[in-house]
Design a protein that fits this description.
Layout (H helix, E strand, L loop, with lengths): L16 E10 L2 E11 L4 E5 L6 H9 L6 E6 L5 H4 L3 E4 L11 H12 L4 H10 L15 H13 L5 E5 L7 H16 L4 E6 L2 H7 L2 E6 L2 E7 H9 L2 E7 L2 H8 L5 E6 L5 E5 L4 H10 L4 E7 L3 H8 L6
Parallel strand pairs: 3-7, 3-8, 5-6, 6-7
Antiparallel strand pairs: 1-2, 1-4, 8-9, 10-12, 10-13, 11-12
Helix pairs in contact: 4-5, 5-6, 8-11
């Protein structure tokens, strides 16, 4: 297949990816149930959920690797699976390579199998992921993070406009995770790609993505801008409270209307949710009970709280 040098389809003003009513069953078990989601051009979209929630099954259905029992998938408005491949590149699960071959040779082999890309495409893809200087080294000398970037290079051959990547930082050390995050941001900001990432790692999605969809037991439980979803969930104010006697403060908070202790903060502080009570009013109440309050620290709501409110499984 020749390089995709045609105009960017995002100019048409249609979603980069639109899924309507996607359902996939395995025998009596429904892995994905009536899924609707939308990814806009230029999004770094996080598809979040516990292991086993149906994320990889969804991606395989989107890519046509397994059949759908129901539903429609549009990529830049296109429903024909053959023409969709013009616009999409993907990594589903861990990318695998022949370790005794060089990175460049692995790309040549993959492109020959796919009938896609040429030498110029491959060189440009290696340059984009920062592997041009190591392209002629054997893959067995690559770090895990470099192998992940080589997988992204393989997905970039053919100049796709949409990347679907399954668990891009899974198994990487902190440096490798940072490298992959920086690469994906660059592909969106500099190269104008749209990126759809599935993950069960909350912190990674929060650091990387502007929009998120949360999948729980095959159903989408929340979708939208991360900041908006978290703000809408809150409806109250979150603080961390430093007192001289946390145990007594925790007991007193049980009797204070409009204040709930929701866990432990940093450095021994208590995490308190306020609804209808101001921090100053809470401070006066605790001081009146003989407690010494040394700090009240406002807290931003986190994606973790949205996740816990939207799923029935524990954070991993």
């Amino acid at each position: 297949m020749p390089r995709n040098d045609s105009p960017n389809p995002a100019a048409a003003g249609v979603p980069a990816l639109e899924v309507e009513g996607l359902t996939r069953r395995f025998g009596s078990r429904t892995a994905v149930h009536d899924l609707h989601l939308k990814v806009e051009p230029g999004d770094l979209y996080g598809f979040l959920g516990p292991n086993g929630a149906g994320k990889t099954t969804t991606m395989r259905c989107i890519l046509g690797l397994i059949r759908r029992d129901a539903g429609r998938v549009r990529i830049f408005g296109e429903e024909n699976p053959v023409r969709q491949r013009t616009w999409v590149g993907a990594i589903v699960e861990t990318p695998r390579f022949h370790d005794w071959m060089t990175g460049r040779a692995n790309l040549e082999l993959a492109c020959a199998y796919a009938g896609q890309g040429d030498a110029t495409d491959r060189s440009e893809a290696l340059q984009r992921v920062g592997l041009a200087d190591r392209a002629d080294d054997r893959v067995r000398t690559y770090s895990h993070g470099m192998k992940q970037r080589l997988g992204i290079a393989r997905a970039l051959v053919g100049r796709p406009k949409l990347l679907l990547i399954d668990e891009p930082t899974n198994g990487l050390d902190p440096r490798g995770m940072r490298e992959v995050r920086d690469l994906l941001r660059m592909l969106v900001k500099r190269d104008g790609l749209t990126v759809f990432i599935s993950s069960h790692l909350l912190a990674e999605i929060e650091l990387l993505c502007n929009r998120v969809g949360i999948l729980d037991q095959g159903k989408l439980s929340a979708e939208g801008e991360v900041a908006t979803l978290v703000r809408d969930l809150a409806g109250d104010e979150l603080i961390e409270l430093a007192v001289d006697d946390p145990g007594r403060a925790r007991a007193l908070l049980q009797a204070v209307e409009g204040a709930d202790c929701v866990g432990d903060g940093v450095a021994g502080r208590l995490r308190v949710s306020l609804r209808g009570l101001t921090p100053a009013e809470l401070n006066a109440r605790l001081v009146g009970e003989g407690l010494a309050v040394s700090a009240i620290v406002p807290q931003d709501r986190r994606l973790e709280e949205l996740y816990l409110a939207s799923t029935q499984q524990e954070v991993r």
